[in-house]
Amino acid sequence: MCVIVTSEAGSMPTMTQLAQMSDTNPDGAGIAWHDGVRLHRYRNEDNHQTLAFIAQHWQFLESVPFLLHFRLATHGKVCVENTHPFRFSKSGRTGFIAHNGIARAHTHGRFESDSRNAILAWQAGQADLSDGSQGRFALIDQNGTLEWLTDDAERIRGGVGFITVSNTNWELGSLIDVDSWWDDGYQNGWEDACVNYGIIPNDEDTLDYMPNRH
Hints:
Shape: globular
Low-confidence stretches: 178-183, 197-214
């Protein structure tokens, strides 16, 4: 099913919400945010790594607008290339866009991912993604503006303020206990991410990371 989250500056999901979203949609996670100057994106087919990145930069991400996606793979293998959000460029706007649902009219095309095919057609003016027939779509543009192309997203309370989500199926689909979730592997994933991406815990440095080359 997947889930999209948009969070305006000054808002933030709870760790429990993120854990439940990830547990229910375990096939890759990505986040795009605007730091007041430009857009950034982090994505990984391993949800542990993306959650680790979010945990490491929690306070900063609370202060900026961001677009977050957890994937449940339906079309296309689990890999970084199929992990949302994806780049877009349309009518003078650029940024990142994410999809929730199945774009049934775009399951065959240039990419094995129906989401990527639908976005490609939309950029070319060959598809309208606003009617909901191909699922839900949300984006963040070069100015940090968050926009839902479809109008049926849900606004719910987060840990700070309110967040907007494409669905709340993850609330019922996961009975995860956050303490045991952390103890049973995500702490190790967080530590691995710190090593792999050169992150020093509690270090307030740049958000632009490249994996260490082996």
